[in-house]
Amino acid sequence: MKILVAEDDENSRHLLEVVLTSKGYEVASFENGLKALAYIKTNPVDLIISDILMPEMDGYGLCREVKQNEYLQKIPFIFYTATYTSAQDERFAMSLGATKFLVKPMMMEDLLPIIDKIINAGFQASPKESNAKSHFGPLRLDKQHAEIMRIKLDKKLIELNEEKQKLIISEARFRDFAEASADWFWESDAQLKIQALAGSPAGLGFYSLVDLAQTCHSHSPSEMLETLKSHKHFSDYVVHFIDESGKLAYLRVSGKPIFDADKHFIGYRGVGRDVSEMIALNRRVEFLASHDELTGLPNRNLFKERLNHAVAKASRTNSQVLLLFFDLDHFKLVNDTLGHEAGDVLLMMATKRISDCIRASDTLCRLGGDEFVMIMEEASPQDGHRLVRDIIAKFTTPFDLHQQRVYSTISVGVSVYPDDTVDPQSLLVFADLAMYRAKQNGRNCFEFYTTNLNFIAHQWLDMENGIRHALKENQLFLEYQPQVENTNQSLVGIEALLRWQHPERGLISPLEFIKIAEQSSLINQIGDWVLEAVCQQIRAWLDQGYQVPRVSTNISARHLRSDRLIHTLKALPAKYQIPTNMLCIEITEHALLDDIDIVKKNMRFIKEAGFNISLDDFGMGHSSLIYLKRWSVDEVKIDRTFIDGLQNSEEDRVIVKAIVALADALSLDIVAEGIENQFQADIVKASGCKVVQGFFYSIPLSATEIATWFKK
To answer: DSSP character for 397?
Structure first.
């Protein structure tokens, strides 16, 4: 069985060929009706499958010629179309004598049974279809065909005109986008001559892609030239040029080769974009990766690299390297009181003062905050000594910040390679230890590293680790010292005192570990622990039916600067159902020197929440009257330094009387602490101080022992 296929679409024609051949049919296919008609006049076929819209002779014309030929008219004819799909198109097709009218797309499993049925059964047009056909003569069919073709042609012309208008609008839109875009749209001819379509960068003087390739920044010029000669696609090639203002500019260019219908290269088409700002930003990022943004000095990363290099060089040349560690004194106070902007200005001015003293071969770096380090290559300790003295002298002059004169001195630690160590990291640690010793010695001075410092540092580290372990293993506990009315010895208050029972070292004095805890965040953890332990014990005493007086507990300066202090003071009294006025928060005057927002916020909360406030170590701080007024202090405690001197110092006795008189004038409670003998007790009583505390009245007691005082 042979089937003729007339179809101008190559893909559709090929699909029918493959499917029909696979079913055992012999297939002859042509791209228009004229060729198909010529074939069937000399070659018999059993079925014709034809599209309608084809060049030279359409499907209607082919069907008409077949059905008017007495030798061909019995061949079954199937229309298979995707364009002429209306009911009118189908009626006209059937009037021409078509056997079947099918619309694309159609599944092959649906099409094949129809073909089989028509071929095997000798399918002819139905009587109805034959009758419809008999009403039309050849002339009328030609007129109807012409009318249909005219309608289709008019419709096609309208569609083409609409497509043309869309194309014009699309082209105009593209040009608008191109003109508004920061991109450079360009084309080149086969000789690589550039023709800018839109957005040519100002000052770009290149007229060919070859010239552009010579300035390639991201790839080698030869690599870009080879790409162009090979007519390959390229993307994100960065080239540079001098713009019209004389600045170096960078352009990122991508291009696609264009070929004609015969695969001949006719040029490139592509786009470019000015990436000068991006290149500058990338370089800025690279700079900041190794330098401090504020001062422009090498940062910690670059410092380590240069220190390693300096040590390696010194090892080869048998020379010395000095490492100087600088830290500004009281920088945090300046930063907190005058603001971070003033702190930044101070850091930049400090950098200038140090830089003015150093040698050209020295490397000054900023590690962060107010910490600086400097590498001195091929220098002796004597060189370092002279330089450090010059730098310290520079800092004796005050800084002018925000129309204020600010004094900020500097502490310096020095370590020496290879005398102290040959390891670069240890060299930094040793310089830091020496700087810290300079801080301990009163600041505004310098120290060279010694092995004794390392021993002290290890002791410090061991103690810090021990405190962490004590918190975890519940080695801390509280004792309570009575505060009594000195006329009748009645109990009016209790002070909670922290203790540490070490499993190996025994009882460790707070004087040994509190200072270390204050240098880290451990003091905040200890403060939270003490507050909860006090609240828990008060609850236990209340549950036992005791009349519990006010209990005092200390808060460190660092704890007072904590963002979480308010949360702790809110949560704990509520948790243990304790009135806030049963707690007295003892704060040193030194803690109030940090006149910063968080300290003000915490102090306001303590007062507004109903806690009592006691100013500890009164008389040893600064501007005491200011603090008494500002924070509405409830109580002051005379510092034990004055109590210790009562027996031998008339001046101390006068000071105690003055403090008592001041407290009376301001209606403040007053406590004299540290009373250890009758003489001190008598003088304090004679001075008018009514509440006293000290070993003379009672040593610190356990919770069980203090309960005996409640019973009294």
So the answer is: S
Residues 14 and 282: their CA atoms lie apart, in Å, by 56
Which span out of 119-123, 273-277, 445-449 was modeled with the highest average pLDDT? 445-449
What DSSP character marks residue 13?
H
pLDDT on residue 125:
44
Under 8 Å between Cβ of 272 and 184: yes
Reference 449, options 476, 463, 428; nearest CA is 428
Q: pLDDT (tens digit, 9 = 90+) per residue, 370-394?
A: 999 999 999 999 999 999 999 999 9
> Would you say residue 626 has pLDDT above 80?
no
Q: Work out whether the CA dihedral 198, 204, 208, 214 comes out positive or negative.
A: negative
| Residue pointed to by tokens 């030929």 | 69
| Cis bond upstream, residue 138 (ω within 30) | no
Residues with Cβ within 8 Å of 408's Cβ and at least 6 positions away in sequence, in order, are 328, 329, 330, 331, 334, 346, 350, 395, 399
Q: How far is 65 from 71, CA to CA, in rounded Å?
A: 11
Higher pLDDT among residues 62 and 443, named by residue: 62
* CA–CA separation, 90 and 96 (whole Å): 10
Q: What pLDDT shows up at residue 135?
A: 44
DSSP state of 208: B
Say whether the peptide bond before residue 418 is cis (omega within 30 degrees of 0).
Answer: yes
Residue 559 has pLDDT above 60, yes or no: yes
Please list, residue by residue across 1-27, b when 16 or more beta carbons sit within 10 angstroms of its beta carbon and e when fewer do: eebbbbbbeeebbeebbebbeeeebeb
The distance from CA 375 to its chain's CA centroid, rounded to whole angstroms, is 32
Tell me what pLDDT residue 623 has. 45
Residue range 87-103: mean pLDDT, rounded: 89
Contact call for residues 609 and 582 (beta carbons, < 8 A): no
More reliable by pLDDT, 501 or 452: 501
Q: Give CA–CA dist 335/337, Å, rounded.
A: 6
Alpha carbons 342 and 402: distance in angstroms, whole number: 7
Q: What is the pLDDT of residue 128?
A: 40
Tokens describing residue 454: 């390392």
Q: From CA 477, how far away is CA 49, in angstroms rounded?
A: 103
Token code pair at residue 545: 């039916």
Is residue 434 a contact partner of residue 414, using CB atoms and an 8 Å limit?
A: yes
Instruction: Please report the pLDDT score of residue 480 as a whole number.
Output: 96
pLDDT tens digits for range 178-191: 555 547 788 899 99
Closest to 40 in 3D by CA, of 5, 86, 8, 16: 5
Cα atoms found within 13 Å of the Cα of residue 686, Cβ hemisphere only = 9
Q: Which residues are within 8 A (CB) of 420 and not within 5 positions of it... i.e. 6 or more apart?
A: 426, 427, 430, 449
Nearest to 434 by CA among 408, 421, 422, 395: 421
pLDDT category at 99 given cuts 50, 70, 90 is very high
Q: What's at 387, amino acid-wise? A: L
Res 243 pLDDT > 90: no
Interatomic CA distance for residues 196 and 256, integer angstroms: 15
3-state secondary structure of 658: helix
| Measured CA distances, 556 to 449, 515, 615 (Å) | 31, 10, 12
Name the pairing type of β-strands 100-103 and 77-81: parallel
**Residue that is written with structure tokens 């009575």 in the block:** 482
| Secondary-structure breakdown of the chain: helix, strand, coil percentages, each rounded to the nearest 5 | 50, 25, 30
pLDDT of residue 593: 58
Q: Which residue has the tokens 């949360």?
A: 567
CA distance linking residue 329 with residue 349, whole number of Å: 14
How is residue 124 annotated by DSSP?
-
**Would you say how long the chain is, in residues?**
712
Q: Give 154-158 contacts, CB < 8 A, sequence gap 24+.
A: none
* β-sheet bridge partners, residue 585: 553, 613
Q: What is the DSSP letter of 182?
A: S
Residue 636's SS3 state is strand
- Taking the CA atoms of the chain, what radius of gyration do you get in angstroms? 49
